[in-house]
Amino acid sequence: QVQLVESGGGLVQPGGSLRLSCAASGFTFTDYYMTWVRQSPGKGPEWVSTISNAGISSWYADSVKGRFTISKDDAKNTLRLEMKSLKPEDTALYYCVRGDYRLYDYWGQGTQITVSS
């Protein structure tokens, strides 16, 4: 069955960096676009970034553009999100999601990022 398992979350100070990983299994990783979505307490889900199945194209929300980098390692079936210059407003539960804006069909359990001094 499809599994998406995020890791790498934690507490970081403003201005710091973190790298999230998502281990994917149960499907052909190179067949799907992959996305990061985040959700802050009391707010709805917010799209963060998407990468194409071949890893050639990527897209970012304006709120993270220039600070976050999405990538994929097809040999390891792993999706990553490099985050730098983190801000308190980046605090959220970050989800790895299979698909793009047309259809998000599988979600991981999420990993918490807290940006605070």
Concise synopsis of the structure shown:
The chain is built from no helices and 11 strands. The protein has 117 residues and is an all-beta fold.
Helix content: under 10%
Largest sheet: 7 strands, mixed
Low-confidence stretches: none
Distance between the termini: 40 Å
Order of helices and strands: EEEEEEEEEEE
Tell me the fraction of residues in β-strands, as a range. over 45%
**From the helix content, strand content and strand pairing, which structural class follows?**
mainly beta
Can you count the beta strands?
Answer: 11
Give the overall silhouette: globular
Number of continuous helical runs? 0
In round numbers, the mean pLDDT is 97
Give Rg in angstroms.
13 Å
Q: How would you portray this structure in words?
A:
- This protein has strands spanning 3-7, 10-12, 18-25, 34-39, 46-51, 58-60, 68-73, 78-83, 92-100, 103-107, 111-115.
- The chain has 117 residues and is an all-beta fold.
- A hairpin with a 6-residue loop joins β5 and β6.
- It is globular and about 40 Å long.
